[in-house]
Design brief:
45 residues, FeoB-associated Cys-rich membrane protein
């Protein structure tokens, strides 16, 4: 029983760290770099 609890805690910790290190791509707008579609508007200074 204690090994099951430790295993679940470990899986939850790995999931949490994974979400922090590799954020979801659906929150990012536009395309990947180098596609040439100009998804990001150019700003002039």
């Amino acid at each position: 029983m204690q090994y099951l609890l430790i295993g679940l805690l470990f899986v939850a910790a790995v999931y949490y760290v994974g979400k922090r290190l590799f954020p979801s791509k659906k929150n990012q707008g536009g395309c990947g770099k180098g596609c040439g579609c100009d998804a990001m508007p150019k700003t002039s200074k």
